User: What shape does this take?
Amino acid sequence: MNETIQSILESGWNYRSARVLQVAGRLGIFETLCGGPLAATELAARCGARPAMLDKLLIACCALGLLIKDRDRYANSQIAETCLIPGRELYQGDMIAHAAHQWGFWTNLEDEIRLEPAPPADPQARHRDFILAMHNITLAGRGKAIVEKADLSGRRQLFDAGGGPGTYSILFCRRWPDLKAILFDLPETLVIAREILAREGLSDRICTRPGSWDTHDFGCGNDVVLLSNVLHGPASQPAMKLRKAYDSLVAGGMLLIQDFLLNDEKTGPLIPALFNVMVGAFSRSELLGHVDQAGFRDAAVLLELPEPGATWFVATKP
Ligand SMILES: C[S@@+](CC[C@H](N)C(=O)[O-])C[C@H]1O[C@@H](n2cnc3c(N)ncnc32)[C@H](O)[C@@H]1O
Assistant: This one.
């Protein structure tokens, strides 16, 4: 991803880091850790927090350099000790609290500016933004990078599960002329994908299959199954999706996975750590464990993209 794109995306998403710092301050995390390192459960009890959500906040604090993790215990980093403990000479916690009090104004900024209140958020328009966002980010560099790296020679049928706008299917089909793809997704997503496929002139090689992985399988005869950004932590039902992928693949078939992954210590990187707060993210070894359990072999990292914080895995059905 080039620096211009990175900088515009940072401007769009920086509120997440701000909010993590503000909320950690409001919960009294740094003050509580002033007395020494604590496990997340103990910290949750002392700060009146829900353990599972606090855990995610603490991971994000580590990724922001505010906390340090040693095995299962958290401690303040040097910057937190200097700036976030009341009474210290360079204490900035009151300023962070002041910034947090103004959150509401910034949330309502659009209405402050418009002559008339903004129209209420339309769920269909929101969904369209979400799906086209996937298209934007893939074209910003991730797509080119994986298409240059993954060897799909000899593969004929790619199943793109939860393929969204179909951008990966498009790029893979362009790169490998003998490949055809099946884009499987919810009907409302495929309405958008079909527009893109038609625009790109690939409707003949990429067919759309409306459905839900909750009720449908992934068909049969697939040479490649792509699970891109659909395995976001435990709530994303990884065992079910990986089993359906496995059952649909031919022997020797390839599984390709892309996702935001935490390191095994669960202290970062930053983008997966922030993503984990709202949606969820596996660590590398957790995801590899699921892939292994589903019966796949030779699972390995194929590509790491530090700026978007994405990791690609490849594995084989024996
Ligand atoms: C984060 S997007 C990923 C899109 C694409 N794979 C990519 O990486 O650009 C998740 C996709 O999962 C789809 N999805 C959500 N629930 C689904 C379900 N129950 N069955 C099939 N697809 C679903 C969404 O419509 C969306 O396109």
In short: The mean pLDDT is 96. The pocket of S-adenosylmethionine is lined by residues 131, 134, 138, 162-164, 167, 185-186, 189, 212-214, 228-230 (CB under 6 Å). The longest helix spans residues 123-149.
